[in-house]
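[Automated response] Your request has been received and processed.

Submitted sequence:
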Amino acid sequence: MLAVVTLICVGPGGYLVYQQRLAQREEEAVKTLSQSPANQIYTRPHWLRTLLARRTAGHVVGIGLRSRETQDSDLPPLAELSELVWLDLTDTKVTDQGLVHLAGLTKLERLRLDETEMSDAGLVHLAKLKRLTMVNLYRTRVTDEGVKKLQAALPNLDIIR
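Generated structure:
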């Protein structure tokens, strides 16, 4: 009985603390990613976020890192954005090694990598993103063979070249 009472009292409080920490980590990631004026960040409103962290009124669902100076070392903060649905890395210095930072973005659906240094080696990281429905690989070093392997791993993926 004591365990049930404890769970009822602590459970909601523990969830709120968890959500608050999540909001703080996301806010720090956004602060880091916002350092370039060319970057665009889009959020989806969420009532609990409004209460817990008044500076961020929702979850980040889209980011366009549009600075040509963006490189692999700028991507680690993306790991904190668990609700990210689309990401635009067009015309950046992102390489295959930088894509390892996308591994935790399990809700990612749309990804633009056109005009990057991407090659077949980076596609291994994309194959793990099971919700991915569209990827733009225009003007990359990805080969036809790499596209075939990615398409086999993600049959519903629309690959633009």
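Summary generated for your ticket: Residues 17 and 52 are 9 Å apart (CA to CA). The chain has one domain: 2-160.
If you did not submit this request, please reply to this message.
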